[in-house]
Amino acid sequence: MRSSARFSNEGDMTKGDVSLLSCIGPLREDPALVILSPPLGGCWGAVPMPRGARKQSESSIYHVMVRGVNQMQLFYDDEDRIVFVERIRRYRDECGFKLYAWCLMDNHVHLLIEVGNVELATIMKKLLLSYSHWFNNKYDRSGYLYEGRFVSKAVDDDHYLLGAVRYIHRNPLEVGGSVDTWTSYRDYMGSDGPGITDTGLVLGMLAEDPERARLAFHELVTGEAEPCDYDFGKPRGQIQEEQAASLIKEIAGVENCTDVCALDSVRRSAAIAEMRSKGLSIRRISRLTGLSRGVVERAGYM
After folding, report:
1. Residues 96, 193 within the same domain
2. Domain range for residue 60?
3. What is the structure's pLDDT at 57?
4. Residue 115 contacts residue 131 (beta carbons within 8 Å)
5. Distance of CA 162 to CAs 166, 225, 275, Å?
6. Of residues 189 and 298, which shows the higher confidence score?
7. What is the greatest pairwise CA distance in the chain?
8. Whole-number Å distance between alpha carbons of 158 and 280
9. Other Cβ atoms closer than 10 A to 71
10. What single string gives the DSSP state of each residue in 37-85?
């Protein structure tokens, strides 16, 4: 499929950019561009970055949302979207984060990120500042591009992770799009996506066989059943550490969490599966019981 997108700044594009035009979402005609004046005191490519402490994720995984200032569009055409995708690729490689899901809407972006050694605020500063410079240069504008601070939400257990993945991919449905419209869906399905998504974790949670995992992923994002009551805009109660320990002991029928290690494999596997169904994460079960993460992962899906 040929593209009508025009690359005005070839120096910013990689060799793979043109091929991306035919593999990410349906192409659209370029709308009329709206050139905005900078706000009072605004400067070239200014990005309001987060201030103050954010809630830290136990798993280092965050659902991040960025919105255009005053509901302004962040993407007017497919060239804009391709540049943003390539900026994600650049800083994923540079900062060493993992990307489990993403979605580019006209005026906002959803990302599901697991951070490594580089903090989330640093990653987002690099990504957003880089794109705002390119965007402002292309459309001959200056000033803020984003609305206030980026919003982040900690994702600390597996059920909530799957809920976030589903939520992100279903965003385009709200405006008449589809789950594969400028999302990570095609990366998951092994088709013609841009290849910026780390799909192994989520697919491994759904099934060991790759084909079965992809079918389960399709059902996750398109089906009626939800893995949990996930809503990005609503606060969620967390299971506290003492509650988690009590739940483990109650389910396994032991006096101490570490006694789970001594259970026979059948009883232990059934107990772990029930723990996970109650919302305890693999990391938390592993930490409190002393079992390796691999044992917990395998037991939960037997």
Report:
1. yes
2. 46-222
3. 62
4. no
5. 6, 12, 16
6. 189
7. 68
8. 8
9. 10
10. PPPTT--TT------S--PPPSSSEEEEEEEBGGG--S-SSHHHHHHHH
| CA gap 134, 131 in Å, rounded | 5
Domain count, the chain: 2
Name the domain boundary from 222, 255, 287: 222
Strand ranges, E, within 115-193: 151-154
DSSP for residue 258: G
SS3 109: strand
pLDDT in tens, 16-72: 444 444 344 443 333 333 333 334 334 334 444 444 555 566 679 999 999 999 989
Q: Give me 58's structure tokens.
A: 């136990």
Cα distance from N-terminal residue to C-terminal residue, the chain: 44
Q: Which two tokens stand for residue 14?
A: 């990689």
Residue partners of 42: CB distance under 8 A and separation at least 6: 142, 143, 144
Summarised one tens digit per residue, pLDDT across range 213-222 is 999 999 999 9
Task: Give me 4's structure tokens.
Answer: 């009508």
Across the range 99-104, mean pLDDT stands at 98
DSSP-derived 3-state class of residue 266 = helix
Tokens of residue 97, six digits:
């984060």
Asked whether residue 142 carries a pLDDT value surpassing 80, the answer given is: yes
pLDDT of residue 278: 73
pTM greater than 0.90 (yes/no): no
67 to each of 110, 122, 145, how far by Cα in Å? 9, 18, 9
Residues 6+ apart with CB under 8 A from 263: 252, 254, 271
Q: Are residues 189 and 278 in the same domain?
A: no
